[in-house]
Write a structure and sequence with these properties.
Keywords: Membrane, Transmembrane, Transmembrane helix. This protein is mostly helical. The protein has one helix and no strands.
């Protein structure tokens, strides 16, 4: 069993990784649009 503390830490880590992935994705899309594909 995982403790609530571990679950909280895993959730925070997941959100951080998702945020980083989203930022890279948006940056990539923005670059593509800016450079005209």
């Amino acid at each position: 069993m995982k403790s609530p503390e571990q679950k909280k830490n895993n959730l925070r880590l997941g959100l951080i990784l998702a945020s980083v992935a989203l930022v890279f994705f948006l940056g990539f899309m923005g670059k593509m649009m800016y450079l005209g594909g």
